[in-house]
Amino acid sequence: MAEKTVIMDAQAISRAITRISFEIVERNRGAEDLCLIGIRSGGAVLARRIADRIGEIENRPVECGELDITLFRDDGSAPEGYEDHSRLDFSIDGKRVVLIDDVIYTGRSVRAAIDAIMSRGRPRNIQLAILVDRGHRELPIRADFIGKNLPTSKEEMVEVQADGGPEDCVAIVK
């Protein structure tokens, strides 16, 4: 079994979420016409936490959804007859969309997510928030908001475990 190293404990992730939330509010001059969309599944958990934090900062709710990118991936991983599990109960037309994921590596998941978003409407812009950026991009994609930059080797894996509540959330390198 591969050795695991905790790179962010629950408290570090909570601080990163707070910092990212303030950066999003500052860059967008508030939460007007702002919506957050988390990439299933790790990004969806983070998106909800960031939306809640921005809601506290701005004293108003922020629309938040979950995006299933399976049908838009370039590796053909969607089985025949696959059903989209996205949950977007709002229009993205004219909105400032913040796309959220837990870890960015090659950029291919983000590319698929952008395609999935654009198939649903025409946002004003799309910004990207990532908890852990591990490098090794294959596409010209860069996050606007980053919780932690973590240079890794291509053999290492970074995993955010957020199955329980916020106090159980950790990021590990395997």
TrEMBL record:
Pfam families the record matches: Pribosyltran
InterPro entries on file: PRTase-like (IPR029057), PRTase_dom (IPR000836), PyrR (IPR023050), PyrR_bifunctional (IPR050137)
Catalytic activity: UMP + diphosphate = 5-phospho-alpha-D-ribose 1-diphosphate + uracil
Transmembrane segments: none
GO MF, any single term: uracil phosphoribosyltransferase activity
Organism superkingdom: Bacteria
Renumbered ranges of motif PRPP-binding: 97-109
EC number: 2.4.2.9
Domain Phosphoribosyltransferase residues, every copy: 7-148
Keywords: Glycosyltransferase, RNA-binding, Transcription, Transcription regulation, Transcription termination, Transferase
Subunit structure, as described in the record: Homodimer and homohexamer; in equilibrium.
Stated role: Regulates transcriptional attenuation of the pyrimidine nucleotide (pyr) operon by binding in a uridine-dependent manner to specific sites on pyr mRNA. This disrupts an antiterminator hairpin in the RNA and favors formation of a downstream transcription terminator, leading to a reduced expression of downstream genes.
Similarity remark: Belongs to the purine/pyrimidine phosphoribosyltransferase family. PyrR subfamily.
Protein name (record): Bifunctional protein PyrR
Origin species: Hydrogenoanaerobacterium saccharovorans
Gene this protein is translated from: pyrR
